[in-house]
Amino acid sequence: MTGGFIWVSMALLSGILMGMYLAYVLRNVTTQKKFEQLNHRYFKGLNYLLNDESDKAIDVFIQLAETSHATFEPQLALGNLYRKKGEVDKAIKLHQALIAQAQLPERYRTRALLAIGKDYMSAGLLDRAEVLFAELVELEAHTPEALKWLMDIYQQEQDWQQAIKTATRFQAATGRSMRTNIAHFHCELADVARLQNNDSQALQHLAAALRVDQKSVRAHLSIGLIEQSKNNHQQAIKSFKQAIAADNRFVPIVLEPLVNSFQAIDQQQQLSKYLNTLISGYSGISPVLSLTQLTQQQSGNKAAQSLLRQHLKQTPSFKGLDMLLRLDMGDEADASHPDDEILTQLIEDLLSKQPRLRCRKCGFGAQSVHWQCPSCKNWGVVKPIDDVV
């Protein structure tokens, strides 16, 4: 009886094992057939793509995206390629098909969301992109990149409050300093307040900018201009000096309003002393030209010419030469050389073609101040060129 039980047990176990084996074989056959079908459709799509039949190719890849995530990576990359080629509508269709796939793993879904967000950015659909990037931040998926794109959106929309919040979150998430950007966002809010004739609110925004970045040239300069408009020239001078102390490359930008405030309260001697201090620590010609003008007002053309010639021997400059020629032509005691006017015009034409400022990141040249580079979109990188000014 015991032997019969053993034989029955062995037969039962053999049957179970045989069933498992047959199921494994059948499953592998089914998987292989599915793989062969998938492989065939995938290469069919590639063939369309290689033959420049992109509309047929996109239809095949969309069908693949809707039925299997086995080809997720190449299809995601293909969508990105379409976007880079400017075919944003095709990129959106392909990436949307990936999202629509049933039972798509979350790690795939978030990557597809990020890709569609970028597609919408390329298409100029900022509101749609904002929704997707905000969702990724909420899901804590691809957070730094999503925050970076959200910052770009808020800057384009000039929503500076949201830009500040997003930049602060990006800084916390990455450890990367966003101090310069945040300070400029506060300054943008100050500019809006000034356009609304609300200097009090503008000063509050500028104070916030300086709490973020004590060396914000823009904030110090803006405070100086507001105080100057209220005839608070001592306070204006203090702010202008702080702007120069923060970055003396901005001397050519700050110097004119600073000189105006000194002269408005008749502090010529203090101005002369400060200009001499600037000259000793700044390589550009701007403070020399201002001191030359002040010397001309106080002591006449001869003294101004002598001062300027002395500086030009040490540091040649086209702008310095231009002023010297004009001083010579304005000196009634000496008949000016007939070619002086021609030289002056040539120098003026030459200087007008030269950028006064240049971006330290991408090399963009400009004649006027841009706090955000129009080319590379970085903040606080467009600065005056010493040898030109």
Blueprint of the fold:
Layout (H helix, E strand, L loop, with lengths): L1 H49 L3 H14 L4 H13 L3 H13 L5 H18 L2 H14 L3 H14 L3 H15 L4 H17 L3 H14 L4 H13 L3 H14 L4 H14 L3 H14 L4 H14 L1 H14 L3 H13 L9 H13 L4 E3 L5 E2 L15 E3 L5
Antiparallel strand pairs: 1-2, 1-3
Helix pairs in contact: 1-2, 2-4, 3-4, 3-5, 4-5, 5-6, 6-7, 7-8, 8-9, 9-10, 10-11, 11-12, 11-13, 12-13, 14-15, 15-16, 16-17, 17-18
Outline:
By secondary structure, the protein is mainly α. It has 4 domains: 140 residues, Serine Threonine Protein Phosphatase 5, Tetratricopeptide repeat; 87 residues, Serine Threonine Protein Phosphatase 5, Tetratricopeptide repeat (Alpha Horseshoe); 77 residues; 36 residues.
Describe the structure.
The chain is an all-alpha fold. It has helices at residues 2-50, 54-67, 72-84, 88-100, 106-123, 126-139, 143-156, 160-174, 179-195, 199-212, 217-229, 233-246, 251-264, 268-281, 286-299, 301-314, 318-330, 340-352, and strands at residues 357-359, 365-366, 382-384. Helix 5 (106-123) packs antiparallel against helix 6, helix 11 runs parallel beside helix 13 (251-264) and helix 12 (233-246) packs antiparallel against helix 13. The longest helix has 49 residues, at 2-50. The N and C termini lie far apart (111 Å).
